[in-house]
């Protein structure tokens, strides 16, 4: 029985040792606890068994080390030989790296310089392209300034339109183009103000010179009537020369065979005098310019309304006689000259422009003038 118990104990200790050798360390605790749970002095026998097992493993380790010792020594000897070669190789690598770094330093500097040149070249190319794109805008704006300085306002408005619709949209991302675009409406308003100022000066001028225009027109009418009478006489005689006569330009009157002599007209020099028209006495360009400008700006109706209103006011002033007009014939002459000059200008505007004044507007002024003239003559005569 004792032998059986001893055999079982030994077998159990073998099992425990196998579990300890093959089991994870976290599970060793329950295994060791079982040693103390079996028999009273079982742990001593287990410790003896454990020491025997340890001595057995030590012997196996020693055998293995003795078996591999010569190979280990040979490996160490080879490593010592390799170490010297490695030191030589390390020196060569270090020297090669140093020489490579020195050679690469110059290459790096040249590479950075090349990169900088490439960047400058790219920036210059981009700048040239952008400048070529911006140059037409700048040239058009410069042209606009020249037109404004030379008072070519109608052409300036056309240039503004091209800038807004064609040129500025191409480079609208630049600040100077935005400033141009913001400045164009202000320039348009300045053009409108300047053209309206010129128109006011024109209206003031024709108000002052209407008597001269009327005097010239009445002289032309008298010469024309005298000329027609002379022509009628020559028709009866059968010998006359055709005159060169125009109501819209400078002409000379040439009468053959002494028709318009001192006996006929009172003055031969007056017959050959150069005929002046409203265009010769009055510069109508402010009216045309202002009309074109307001038409381009889409505000033609405002201009037409202003012009007709001002001319109607001037008509009332012209039709108002001076208090002492009835005292001299010159007073009547100046009065009628002013009226005729006013309507000669309006007739020219009627035929030279399209719709600025209409026949109905002119007839309205004429009817007003007739009633006023009749009333003035009845009062002063």
Automatic annotation (TrEMBL):
Top-level taxonomic group: Eukaryota
Domain Exocyst complex component EXOC6/Sec15 N-terminal: 49-218
InterPro entries attached to this UniProt entry: EXOC6/Sec15, EXOC6_Sec15_N
Entries under Pfam families matching the protein: EXOC6_Sec15_N (PF20651)
Record protein name field: Exocyst complex component 6
UniProt organism field: Characodon lateralis
Phylogenetic lineage: Eukaryota, Metazoa, Chordata, Craniata, Vertebrata
